[in-house]
Structure formats: C-alpha cells, structure tokens
C-alpha cells in the first residue's frame, strides 16, 4: 500500500488517499474518473476544470490562466496546487482522483511540498496519439482549446513534460498502466481490477 497522509482539514485519525490520473489529451481520463466516482466513492478533481472555472470567475488568476491555456502553456504550479487544495478541503471526502495533474516535475514537487501528500498510485491511461486526436476532433464540448493546432501543441507539451513524471513514479513502482485505446467498458474493467486490488491490499 502506498503512502497516505493527514490532510489539514481532517482530524488526526483520518487518512487522505490521493490518486493522480494521467494520460494524453483525449485518452478518456474524465469518462473513467466519472465511473470510478460512481463505483468507488472518490471525489474527482480535474485540474483543467478547476483552472477553467477560475477563468470563468474572472479573477486576476483567471485572466493569466486563460492566456496560458490559449498558448498551450502550463499554468504556474502554485496556482494549480492551491486550487486543488481548496477543492479537497471543501469536498468533505478523504479519497481523491486528481485528473490531469501533475503535468510536469515542477507540478509534482509543488504538490508534495505545499500539501505534504504523496499519491497512493498513478493511474496512467496510455493511448496512441492518432486515436486521441480523432477523439478530440470528434467531440463537441465547446472547448476553446479543441482545434487541430492547439491539440497538437498540447500533445507536444504532454510528451515533453508529463512522461518524465510518469517515469519518476514508475521508478517507485507507483504506476498502474491502462490500455485506453480499448472501448470505454473494456477500459473500465481494467480500471476496476486496479481498484479492487487496492481494496484487497487495504483489507489485508
């Protein structure tokens, strides 16, 4: 079993479980997180959704975030970590899926230093770039960053920045790899196996 730690908003006896959910844009992370929430009682926190909500709120942070998202850049780690931490504290839960974060080593280090938490494991949705591109261009969510030029820029950022994070956790034996090119139902069967295995370890 991985490390779980006390969170600031819980009493001394309550432990918090954090699972990072990583995969390229269009790998199906959000869909699978919704299934995990329904079946296993986790709170799903999407770093991207939190950042977009901040943009919509029109804060000073939001204006800066909007510009960086348009340019395909990564938002400063402290901003994202603080949004995640606030959402965790407000949720009232002690089990979290953090989707699309950390996106680089700086994100990872900032999360560990600011929150004092280590992830239980990393759920990594592996999917070919051609399939992710097909999915992104085919969906209709009104996302400002779902055009071909920005999508390919996001792929480049992902490959350069996020894969080293996955390699870091793989060296610690904390990566659970999922073949995300399969149909949604088949992917979730694999996901359920990972979470059932974790429950068995806790029970033991």
TrEMBL record:
EC numbers, comma separated: 2.7.4.14
Reaction equations catalysed: CMP + ATP = CDP + ADP; UMP + ATP = UDP + ADP; dCMP + ATP = dCDP + ADP
Cofactor: Mg(2+)
CDD domains hit by this protein: ADK (cd01428)
Residues annotated for ATP binding in this entry: 26-31, 139, 182
Textual note on the cofactor: Binds 1 Mg(2+) ion per monomer.
Enzyme's top EC category: transferase
GO BP of this protein: 'de novo' pyrimidine nucleobase biosynthetic process; nucleoside monophosphate metabolic process; pyrimidine nucleotide biosynthetic process
Gene3D superfamilies associated with the record: P-loop containing nucleotide triphosphate hydrolases
Keywords per UniProt: ATP-binding, Cytoplasm, Kinase, Nucleotide-binding, Nucleus, Pyrimidine biosynthesis, Transferase
Gene Ontology CC annotations of this record: cytoplasm; nucleus
Localisation: Cytoplasm; Nucleus
Biological function: Catalyzes the phosphorylation of pyrimidine nucleoside monophosphates at the expense of ATP. Plays an important role in de novo pyrimidine nucleotide biosynthesis. Has preference for UMP and CMP as phosphate acceptors.
Quaternary structure note: Monomer.
Similarity section: Belongs to the adenylate kinase family. UMP-CMP kinase subfamily.
Domain free text: Consists of three domains, a large central CORE domain and two small peripheral domains, NMPbind and LID, which undergo movements during catalysis. The LID domain closes over the site of phosphoryl transfer upon ATP binding. Assembling and dissambling the active center during each catalytic cycle provides an effective means to prevent ATP hydrolysis.
NCBIfam families linked to this entry: UMP_CMP_kin_fam (TIGR01359)
Protein name, entry field: UMP-CMP kinase
